[in-house]
Fold DUF1080 domain-containing protein.
Amino acid sequence: MKRLTAISFLFLALAAVSVNAAEEEKGWISLTDGKSFDGWKINENDKAWSVEDGAFVAKGSRSHLFYVGDEKPFKNFILNLKVMTKNNSNGGVYFHTKFQDEGWPKNGFECQVNNSYNSDPRKTASVYSVKDVLEAPAGDDEYFDYTIEVKDKTAKLYINGKLVNEYTEPEGKEAGKDFTRVFDEGTFALQAHDPGSTVYYKDIRVKRLP
């Protein structure tokens, strides 16, 4: 009887773990198929982008790859992806942005990708030029988990599960012209920064929040 009770308890425990895992996965949507640019739109320079081993590879003159697979804008969400940089490479992940034909995106915020790029002190997990990180939380030549959580007027940036940066918009800040950054809504974009930079982005998924 004791043995049966123990076995029953083990099955119940495993079932609870499975239910919890399923609940955690609930609501996540993959934004890539690992083999094409379906759902994404490139601006300026098509040659800056390729798909390799399931990843978007950014290498070339300035260009941005915008997610256009869902017309409903993203406001509150958790975005998760894996990123890898080569030595002396720069890239970025934008949120609350909008497609534009050329130039650095004027809308939204850039979450910096830079582990060893010499010409810019702003490192990975910086909310670019808004709240910067000056010491890289990841290294080159291996994938790291990049998680961006946005809720109302606050963004939290996690690297490999560790909270590295958090920014809350000051009260009373309003959208201005040019590069003024404010929380709003929009889509996501990935950055190809320059011909000398190589950055890989893969396993991109998002969960909308209330």
About this structure: Residues 30-208 form a domain with the Jelly Rolls fold (CATH 2.60.120.560).
